[in-house]
Model the fold of this input.
Amino acid sequence: MNKTWFKRKLGNGHGEEVTRSWLVCSTSKKSAFCICCILYSRSDHQSSLEQESGFNQWKARERISVHENVKNHRECFIQWKEVEINLAENKGVIDAELQSQIEKEKQKWRDILPRILHCIKFLAIQNLALRGHGESFELGDDSNMGNFLGLLKLLPIFDPVMKEHLTRVESHPGSTSYLSPGVQNEFIHMMASTVCQSLLRSIS
Ligand SMILES: [Zn+2]
Done:
């Protein structure tokens, strides 16, 4: 491989060069590849630049230049650049859908976590124990699941957000719920730390 492979003279009389962005190399295979043709080419007559083995032959500069001007390569290059522009403008179908899912997931937890936090805060203010004999919603009605889970089980009667969340937790055991004893303790420590800092600020 040679550094000169990756540059192309514009031929505008000023000796200007542009980088061949489509040409990528593998140091382990000691070969060069055409990324856009590898991704998009449907041609039966693939050059070595489009194949798994790559391209490492002599007279490479001329061969690369020939490949660059082949119709199939030009079409693949345009397709590659169009995808790049679409993704950059957030118009890409895959990207937009993924982004939308991430935003929905973020909003879901922004809705759920304050409800859980307020339940823990209420029980802490009332000096009530959070946990009972079990940590499962599947316990029978006469079993003591504790004040925290009991209170949470009350919310879905009026609150669609918690109704959906608890239905999911019950139907998908092991899924993320933010209801475990570890999470309860984490919330309690965070609130204790906030109270401590507030007290320290007020006396300093
Ligand atoms: Zn190509």
Notes: The pocket of zinc ion is lined by residues 34, 36-37, 49, 67, 73, 76 (CB under 6 Å). The chain has a mean pLDDT of 83. The radius of gyration is 30 Å.
